[in-house]
Amino acid sequence: MGNQTNTGRFVVAQFCDDIRQEVGNKFSLMGCYGDQVIVEKFPIVLPKFCAHIRVFTPIDRPFARLVVRAKLNTEIAAESMLPLERITPSHLRASQDNNLGRATLVAVIVLSPFVVTETSKLQIEAETEDEIIPGSFVIIREQAPRDAPNDSVDGGQ
Fold it and tell me: What is the per-residue pLDDT across 60-111, written as a single tens digit (0 to 9) for each?
């Protein structure tokens, strides 16, 4: 299996402290991060760290297999195989109706607790029947002397 190819498939993730289910089939992402998580010092134990993941594929190229994973540097921190048998033709019709020409599958990964011992990269990827699609990532690093103190995470300690 190679790296991402020009297949029209891609992966996007939003990293946050928590994902909460709300009334009315809504959810809230709490404490969202950009491209970095700045911590006071290593090692750090975050009580919870989440990724809200969306995997896109052209409507005419449905997934035969889909595993979503989070990798901390080179190690697998978590992974989940999405139950594609639960995708019905009505799901695909709804995707076609949005005129985007692609289907979207959503997954959530929760790391609890999340232990980081050094500057690290947490990256989301999707493994399909024939490729690994790299997705969003976040860098976890120590606060530098020039960083503002209110930008750091203390891990609830």
Answer: 888 899 999 999 999 999 999 988 876 655 555 555 556 677 888 899 999 9
Which SS3 state, helix, strand or coil, does residue 33 take?
Answer: coil
DSSP string, 78-144: EEEE--GGG--HHHHHHHHHTTSSEEEEEEEEEESSEEE-SSEEEEEEEEESSBEEEEEEEEEEEPP
Backbone φ, ψ for residue 95 (5° rounding): -65, -40
Number of neighbours of residue 56 by Cβ within 10 angstroms: 17
pTM exceeds cut of 0.85: no
Look at the domain 10-152 and name its fold.
Immunoglobulin-like (2.60.40)
Among 154, 148, 126, 146, which residue's Cα sits nearest to residue 51?
A: 126
Please give the helix or strand (H or E) that residue 29 lies within, else none: strand 26-32
Domain ranges, ordered by start, for the chain: 10-152
- pLDDT band at 2; cut points 50, 70, 90: very low
Under DSSP, the state recorded for 149 is: G
For residue 141, what are the contacts with CB-CB under 8 A and spacing of at least 6? 36, 37, 38, 39, 119
